[in-house]
Design goal:
Layout (H helix, E strand, L loop, with lengths): L18 H4 L5 H17 L1 H11 L9 E5 L5 H8 L9 E6 L6 H9 L3 E6 L2 H6 L8 E5 L7 H14 L2 E7 L3 H7 L9 H12 L6 H5 L7 E8 L3 E8 L25 E3 L2
Parallel strand pairs: 1-2, 1-4, 2-3, 4-5, 6-8
Antiparallel strand pairs: 5-7, 6-7
Helix pairs in contact: 3-4
Length: 271
C-alpha cells in the first residue's frame, strides 16, 4: 500500500473480529494488551489530538459538565485529558460505557482527586443505542471504538449519539498507508501478539475521507461536522449541534490536516 492518504480512499473498509474483544478481562493476554494500548495512544498522540479536537468545538461546547465515553476501556486516556488543563472543571461527571468495567480503583481515586464524578455503564453499545431512557450528555467521546462496527450497526450508534450528545469527538484509525505501515511495527513497542494482530485489523477497519459524516443521521438536529487526518495515524471526527455552534465555521484549527477547515456536513481535509 503506498504511503499516501489520498490513495487510501479507494480501499474498501473491512471489519474483522479483534482478539482482545474475545478475551476475558482477567486473561493475562488481555491485561497486557490493555497496557500496550496505553503506549499506542502515546505514539498516536491521542491526548494532543483530543485536546485540539476539543478546541475545535464552539465555545459553548468546550466546557461540558457531563461527558460520555463510548468503549471506554480502562479510562486512562480520559484521565490524562482531565489532567491536561483542558478539563471541564470540578463539576464534571464522566460516564464510561463499556461491556466490562475496566476502570481500576486507582483510576477512580485519581478522578475523584480532580473533582470528577465517575459512573460506569456496563452495557453493550448497541443495546444502549436502542434504550429510549438513556441519558443526555454535553459531550460524547470515543477513541479506537467505532471501527469495530459494520455499517448498519455504526449508523444505529451514531444516531443515538446525535440524539443524546450536544457535541461529539471520535478518534479512529486512519485507513491509509502510513497507519498500515505503523501497525506492522507495534512489536517495536513491546506489544504482545494480541495487540500486534489487532493493530493491523484496526487499520483495515479504519476510516478515510467523509465516511463517518456520510453515516451521520440526515435528520441529525442540524449538526456541523468535520473529518480530517490527524498525523500520524488518526482519523478525527468532530461535531456539534447547531444550537451550540457559533455562526461561523465550526473550527479554525486542524492537527495535521492540509487545507483550511470547512463547515457543514462532511467537511474534510485530506493530506
Amino acid at each position: 500500500m503506498p504511503l499516501t492518504d489520498r490513495s487510501s480512499l479507494r480501499l474498501a473498509r473491512r471489519v474483522l473480529p479483534e482478539h482482545l474483544d474475545a478475551l476475558p478481562p482477567d486473561d493475562p493476554r488481555a491485561r497486557r494488551s490493555r497496557r500496550d494500548l496505553q503506549r499506542v495512544h502515546r505514539v498516536m498522540r491521542s491526548l494532543m489530538i483530543l485536546r485540539r479536537a476539543a478546541r475545535l468545538l464552539p465555545v459553548a461546547a468546550r466546557h461540558p459538565r457531563t461527558i460520555l465515553e463510548l468503549g471506554a476501556g480502562d479510562g486512562t486516556l480520559m484521565l490524562r485529558f482531565a489532567r491536561s488543563g483542558h478539563s471541564p472543571g470540578q463539576a464534571a461527571q464522566v460516564t464510561f460505557l463499556d461491556q466490562q468495567d475496566l476502570i481500576s480503583p486507582v483510576t477512580r481515586r485519581k478522578f475523584r482527586s480532580l473533582g470528577w464524578q465517575v459512573q460506569v455503564l456496563t452495557e453493550d453499545a448497541l443495546k444502549w443505542s436502542r434504550d429510549a431512557s438513556a441519558g443526555q450528555y454535553d459531550l460524547g467521546v470515543t477513541t479506537l471504538f467505532l471501527h469495530h462496527f459494520q455499517t448498519p450497526a455504526l449508523e444505529l450508534l451514531l444516531r443515538a449519539v446525535a440524539l443524546r450528545c450536544r457535541a461529539f469527538i471520535a478518534l479512529e484509525p486512519r485507513r491509509n498507508g502510513l497507519a498500515w505501515a505503523g501497525s506492522h511495527l507495534l512489536g517495536l513497542l513491546g506489544a504482545n501478539q494480541v495487540t500486534r494482530e489487532d493493530g493491523v485489523t484496526s487499520v483495515i477497519a479504519g476510516f478515510s475521507g467523509h465516511e463517518l459524516s456520510a453515516l451521520w443521521p440526515a435528520d441529525g438536529d442540524g449538526w456541523r461536522l468535520q473529518e480530517y487526518f490527524a498525523w500520524p495515524f488518526t482519523h478525527c471526527f468532530v461535531g456539534a449541534r447547531q444550537s451550540v455552534a457559533e455562526p461561523q465555521v465550526l473550527a479554525s484549527e486542524h492537527d495535521g490536516a492540509a487545507g483550511p477547515p470547512g463547515a457543514g456536513r462532511g467537511a474534510d481535509a485530506n493530506s
